[in-house]
Amino acid sequence: MQEILFKILIISYGTTAIIDIIAYWPTIKDLLIHKKPSANIQSYIL
Fold it and tell me: CA 5 to CA 24: how far, in whole Å?
C-alpha cells in the first residue's frame, strides 16, 4: 500500500511540473525572448 502511494506521489509531482511549464510558457517567452519586464496575464489564468 505504501509503495502505491509513493508512486502516485511521484507521478503527481511530475505532472504538476509539466503543467507549470506549460502554464507559464507565455510568461517565460515574454521575459526571455521579447524582453518584456512584466508577466503575462494568460499564465496566471492557466
Answer: 28
Q: Which domain holds residue 25?
A: 19-46
What is the grid cell recorded at 16? 504538476
Residue 7 lies in a domain: no
> pLDDT band at 42, cuts 50/70/90?
low
Q: How many domains does the chain have?
A: 1
**pLDDT at res. 3:** 93
The model's pTM is 0.56
Predicted local confidence at residue 31, as pLDDT:
81
